[in-house]
Structures are given as structure tokens and as C-alpha cells.
Amino acid sequence: MTPLDSLGRPLHDLRISVTDRCNFRCVYCMPKEVFGKGYQFLPRDQILSFEEIERLVRIFVALGVEKVRLTGGEPTLRRDLEVLVAKLAAIGDLDLTLTTNGSLLAEKARGLKDAGLKRVTVSLDSLDDAVFRSMNDVDFPVAKVLAGIEAAQAVGLGPIKINMVTKRGLNEASVLPMARYFKGTGWTLRFIEFMDVGHSNGWRLDDVVPAKEIVAAIDREMPLEPVDKDYRGEVADRYRYKDGGGEIGVIASVTQPFCADCTRARLSADGSLYTCLFATRGTDLRALVRDGSTDDEIAAKIAAVWTGRDDRYSELRSAQTEGLHKIEMSFIGG
Ligand code: SAM
Ligand code: SF4
Ligand code: SF4
Fold first, then answer.
1. What is the pTM of this model?
2. Contacts of 318 (CB under 8 A, 6+ apart)
3. pLDDT in tens, 255-285
4. Would the CB of 140 count as within 6 Å of ligand 3?
5. Cα(315) to centroid of ligand 3, in Å?
């Protein structure tokens, strides 16, 4: 039985952070001042094993979850990720996907596809090397990410979605070149408003480029029309090029919140369940997995947490919520 939360939203998708580590230091996610050399990442024994993740996913699926997305940190850094993908793919008819910065995709695409991964979403914030390098802050070149995207497409991990976080003053000038580049490729470019996740990225409302502004800028050059959402809980507002050049999406989590349709649970690498991207506290499922609790007991706990859920942070965002000690994006998995 799919539990409904206190606002009537079903539990439909699950995001799993498989590691809190990353080889990038994106300025909006893992700024170097905070995630520098001395930063303490999770010790190995605190991270869920593949067997533990598989068991939890089976329980979530029995509760109604149909979509599972692997994320992080950078999920492709988790050793033998293909082994986990194969275990999850064997669970049944799941929409099994991955969000990645694309840095290792050229090497890993084939193995992931063979293991049963269905699609990938690749994050890329600019086609301009100088801008991209300044955003990932580890001098990583655009060309390698593009090679990863091509490799993913070549092995059948498409249709690919490209996520671009837009931050005022950093990569606004990259919006149109990105739109031009991906138009007609069959890949959907999605613009994500810079969000106040965590408490280390120095978020200010002034840094957010409103989705409406982006749509208007693209529409002026390449006319767009809105497309209906595919399903309840789809976070992107979709637009298609009037000339048949494909679609773009905007994830306007700051300026047009979509909490009313949020059907997503999140599992951190250390096995805590979060019911909102902006949560300040999670529920420790790892303790239950490791203390001999039965599947039924764990399912009852998850259902109880979901039933009690009333999160709608983005709709309530205000001076008060800004100061909360929220969980970092790299930990909870975007
Ligand atoms: N490392 C992978 C990647 O970058 O795709 C997966 C994890 S990352 C946390 C997931 C998504 O969150 C990425 O598309 C990233 O651009 C986005 N993201 C990270 N910090 C963000 C922020 N402050 N606001 C909006 N999106 C953010
Ligand atoms: Fe790493 Fe992804 Fe965060 Fe960038 S957005 S620092 S690639 S986890
Ligand atoms: Fe869902 Fe929380 Fe984001 Fe609202 S703020 S859409 S409840 S994750």
C-alpha cells in the first residue's frame, strides 16, 4: 500500500546518495572553503553496503516507489557501482537512473548500461571552458563532460537530460549557447534555479536567475511553447521549440515552488531518510537495517515517517527558514 503524506502526496520516487564524496568542488554545492582538505567525509563503516541499499529499495518498492535515482556526491566515484545497479535492476520494473557530473561517464557508461541502468542525467553548467572550470573549481574541462554524454548516448543511456544550475553573475551568459548547442540533439536541457540547500554555499536570493527570465531569453531567439507535465511530481516545467527542435525544462524551485506535488524521498549515503531536500533532520534507517529489524518493521517505520510528512519548505521559504541548519546538497543528493 502506497502511503500518503499529510498533504495527500504519495511516496513515488526515491533518490539514493551512494557517496558523500565528489571530485568536483562546484561553488554552489561543495565550496572549497568548506569542503577543503580537512573536511571529514563519512567513514566507510557508516556508509550503507550494496546489500543494505538493495534491501531498503525492495522495501521502498513494496511501498509504491517506482523511480529510483542514484546520486551523491558523485555516484560514479562509488567503487563497483555497476554491481549495485545490477542488484537494483533485478528488483523489477523500476525506472532506474543516475545523476552525474559526467567526469567518469566515458569510461563507465557501457558497464552501467549492461548492468541495467536506464538513463542518465548529466550536470553541465556552461560550454565555456573558463566559466565551467571556475564553477567546478577543480579545473575540469567541458570537453570531457561532453565526451561522457556522447558515450552515454552511444550505449543507449538516453534520452539524456542535462542539468544546468544558473547563478547570477557566474553563468547567465552561458544560457543561450547551451540552449543552441542542445537544441535538436534529442537531449533535454534543464535549467535549475540556484537553491539555498545546505548552509555553506552562501546563497542569496539575488543570486537566483528566475526561470521565467531564462525562458523569455530563449523564447526571444528560439520560440517556445509550454508542454503539459508527464506525471504528478515531475519537477520541471517543460517547453518545446515551436520549430520541432526538442524540449527544454526549468526547475523553478525558488520562484515557483512545486511542493504540492513533491512525491520524493531521499536516502543519504549513511542510511538516513529525508522527506525534503531542505530537511534539518533525517530518520536513521541504517540502525534498523543493522539491528535485526524485519522488513515489515522497517516498512512500518518508513510508512509512519511518510504519513507524518508535511514538508513544503520552498513554499514557506522566508527569512526564518534561511537560517535553519539544513543538510548539504552533496550529502542528501540533489
Ligand atoms: N554529482 C552529481 C551531479 O553533479 O550531477 C550528482 C549530485 S548533485 C548534488 C545533483 C544535482 O544537484 C546536480 O544537477 C547539481 O547541479 C544540483 N545542485 C547542486 N547544488 C545545487 C544548488 N545549490 N542549487 C541547485 N542545484 C544544485
Ligand atoms: Fe559534486 Fe555534483 Fe555537488 Fe558538483 S553538484 S560538487 S559535481 S555533488
Ligand atoms: Fe519537495 Fe521539500 Fe523541495 Fe518542497 S522544498 S519540493 S517538499 S523537497
1. 0.96
2. none
3. 988 898 899 999 999 999 999 988 889 999 9
4. no
5. 8
